Amino acid sequence: MNLNISYNWLKEYVKTGKSAKEFAKLLSLSGPTVDRMIEFGQDLSGVVVGKLIQKDKHPNANNLFVGQVDVGKKTIQVVFGDKAKVEVGQQLPVAIAPTTLPAGEIKRVSLRGVESQGMLCLDSELAISDDEKITFFDEQIKPGTPITKALKLLSDDIFDIEVTSNRPDAMSVVGIAREAAAIIGEKFLYQDPTPNITKRADVKLLVNVKEPKLCGRYQAVVMTDVKVESSPLWMQQRLISSGLRPINNLVDITNYVLLEFGQPMHVFDYDKLSGNEINVRCAKSGEKILALDGKSYELNDSNLIITDKKNPVAIAGVMGGEESSVTSTTKTAVFESANFNALIVRKTSRLLNLQSESSSLFEKSLAPEATSPALGRAIELAMELAGGKVASKIFDVSNYESSAKPILLNVQNLHVKLGVEIKPDRIKKILIDLGFIVSGSKDFKVTVPWWRQKDVEGEHDLIEEVARIYGYHNLPFDLPSGELPVNYDNNQEFTAQDKVKDILVAVGYSEVYNYSFISAKQIKDSSLTVDDHIKLFNPLNTDFEYMRTSLVPGLLTNVAGNENLFKVAKFFELSHVYISQKNDLPDEKAMLAVVVYGKPEQELFYELKGVFSTLIQKLNIIKSNQELLTQEVKFWQKDKTTKIIIDDNEVGNLGIINSEVLYLFGIKSTVGIMEIDFSALLKNAKASSTHKVLSRYPQIELDLSMEIDKKVLYRDVQESIIHVDKLIKGVDFLSVFEGNGVADNQKALAIRIVYRNDGKTLTMTDAQNVHNKVVGKLKKEYNIGVR
User: Fold this and answer.
1) What topology does CATH give the domain 700-786?
2) DSSP H helical segments within 407-484, as ranges?
């Protein structure tokens, strides 16, 4: 998850005089990574305060005006529309051409025959607000004053920070500041909010949590006399720079707290809550809610919702409802700060295909303790920015228990694991700076703070925390020495997978990983049947609707995406497919698929045959053969594909993908694939080869080159030869050729036959006699012509 955070905002919580670049470098070295930095205000250097001193109608356009604008040292002419009703004498932001704004480049242009030397700027065009309005200045601001000075906009740097999903505590300004303070060794300036609540009215509100297992904590407060209006510029600036759109001051407060504390919040219009009630319950099937995105969603009993006495007012942890939202007429508001079960929020978000900043955070298991400081901060801001007054008690329905248990940290063990001795006082300080409670002097008893209880579980986690703050770059980098570890893995399938992957990598293949989900289009384009595939009830998107029954569709997609970059390539995938079974869970089968593309068909075929032979040899599989596929099946091309037979069972196919399928995938190259049931391969594999006593007598090798019908398989020729005589000990393939000098329906096949007598030395005469028998049999069975 990436965050955009203002450096000025961070400096409110961590004391530092470091430059933005130095700060980003140190943070990235030992904490969350700063992917990039954006300098705020650099695009406003050409914008100044200008005073409109003359306004005339455009001679050639009814809806345009021509203005003369004093920008300090000179007067420029600007053509503008009158959306904001600008009058002579008013002072406003003016971009002097040529310059560049966040909204784009400003040039001198001719508009309907009149030159415009600049532009009057809306706040949205300056990216200081989302409002389509113009900020006007009083006469104390002199024309020509830079806009950043006039608006008191501080120069700032926006950090684009990547935070790993196991660290929701760092997905906020306060969280990053805490990390930074520990890393750079400066003071962490955060203190829990303590709003000054002087007097409390007694506005009625009933809070009832009916699903305590799904809502660990629910806090709420009623505030009266709120004035709903635009947020101040500084808040809008921070929201926009973080990627959030300002709405109004109350909604902006909840979003501001989300960014600052990493705790999602929501605000309701109190007067729109029927019965002055808030209930946390599961939805009833068929209930509907109009959400803040303007869409209506139908709910079911697996969705956790917030309701008033009659209707749903929010989808818990995901999004609020439109009908209870605050507007310009709101006078009394209810702020909600709650903790919801991560799994229920994730399921609801996926089911409704509705994601938000809140759901993204809740899905990562937030701490229930985070709701209290977030609510306190919201109260402070509502008092300051909306004039609100607390009008109820702070409701707090808690259904959680702290899971904090002390962890023993053995200092000597830490030294061994890191390979460096760190003084105990330094270890203790690092952990305390990160918020851990530490006791002891040599070995430490460490209590994990509430914001880290989801990811710090044992001593190994504490060692990692010390290592990263101490600095990985400060750890020794000696090469390891000692005995190599022995693999005692008893899981034969995993061991076999590693062995097969090593074999394929050794012969030049690269491994790929594809999702187990595919689209209906991939299925149809592969000549497979959609109904044979298991459809997901709640897919991430339409590209991942079905569970695959073959690895081929995904691999063809890989080929389509790579053939423009690599003209020839070969790769493999060893993963699972899912075969539907009636009234049962799918049969999850491990499959191995090997792909080659970018070569002529014949080369592809023999390349794959070579890979298959290598696997058979390395896995010590004795009985295997291939049979020609003579009819079109799925994506295979008939007469150029074989069935793979192991121990008389068909376990896969090896051959060429048909051209129609390649066309549908947008593939121009010829593609060869071998797909095998890996479990069947494993079943017939042996850990070691069968030992045979070596013969004491020499062998004789005789080559045979023949012309034979191209439809005849080498395997059939081999089978015919091997049984002619017991002196024949082996038949090896040498080459095959089709083309010049060979008839159209023929191929030139060259083989080598091995002869040996294990009882005495074999003479050439005896070997030649058997060789003649072989030739005679082949002439009779296949009508060969000897070359």
Assistant:
1) Alpha-Beta Plaits (3.30.70)
2) 411-418, 424-433, 459-470
CA 771 vs CA 190, 448, 601, 719, 776: distances in Å: 92, 82, 33, 15, 9
Integer angstrom CA distances of residue 152 from 41, 163, 237, 400, 563: 11, 31, 12, 45, 55
Indicate the pairing of strand 517-518 with strand 437-439.
unpaired
Task: Using only the alpha carbons of the chain, give its radius of gyration.
Answer: 37
Alpha-carbon distances, residue 241 vs 39, 104, 158, 244, 671 (angstroms) = 10, 17, 7, 8, 49
CB atoms within 10 A of CB 406: 13
* Averaged pLDDT, 745-769: 92
Look at phi and psi of residue 270 and say left if phi exceeds 0, alpha if psi is from -120 to 50, else beta.
Answer: alpha
CB-count exposure of residue 667 (10 Å: 0-12, 13-18, 19+) = buried
Pair 231, 123: CB distance under 8 Å: no
Taking the CB of residue 448, how many other CB atoms lie within 10 A of it? 24
Residue 761, pLDDT > 60, answer yes
| Amino acid 690: pLDDT | 56
Q: How far is CA 175 from the centre of its chain?
A: 22
Distances (CA, A) of 425 to 432, 441, 442: 10, 8, 9
Rounded-to-integer distance, Cα 561 and Cα 151, Å: 50
Instruction: Tell me what percent of the chain is helix, strand and coil, each rounded to the nearest 5.
Output: 30, 30, 40
**Paired strand residues for 5:** 159
CATH architecture of 492-684: 2-Layer Sandwich (3.30)
Sequence-distant (≥ 6) Cβ neighbours of residue 192 within 8 angstroms: 373, 376
The H or E element spanning position 343 is helix 342-352
DSSP string, 645-656: EETTEEEEEEEE
Asked if 633 and 661 touch (Cβ cutoff 8 Å), the reply is: no
Domain boundaries, the chain: 2-41+155-184, 43-150, 206-398, 407-474, 492-684, 700-786
- CA 35, 40, 42, 45: dihedral to nearest 10 degrees? 170
pLDDT at 339: 96
The CATH code belonging to domain 2-41+155-184 is: 3.30.56.10
* pLDDT tens column, 686-728: 765 555 667 888 999 999 999 999 888 887 888 899 889 999 9
Is CATH 3.40.228.10 the right assignment for the domain spanning 206-398?
Answer: no
Length of the chain: 787
Same fold, 2-41+155-184 and 407-474: yes
Report how far apart, in Å, the C-alpha atoms of 664 and of each of 518, 526, 550, 667, 671 are. Answer: 15, 8, 17, 8, 13
- Give all strands of the β-sheet with 319-320 in edge-to-edge order: 206-209, 277-282, 304-307, 312-315, 319-320
* DSSP string covering 543-564: GG-EE-S-SHHHHHHHHHHHTT
For the segment 496-523, what is each residue's pLDDT rounded down to a tens digit? 888 899 999 999 999 999 999 999 999 9
Kindly give the pairing relationship between strand 389-390 and strand 277-282. unpaired
Taking every pair of C-alpha atoms in the chain, what is the biggest distance, in angstroms?
119
- Residue 158's nearest CA partner among 18, 36, 256 is 36
Beta bridge partners of 535: 546
Strand 2-6 versus strand 156-162 pairing type? antiparallel
Residue 130 near residue 89, CB atoms below 8 Å:
no
Tell whether pTM > 0.70.
no
CA 592 from centre of chain: 26
Check: CB of residue 181 under 8 Å from CB of residue 187: yes
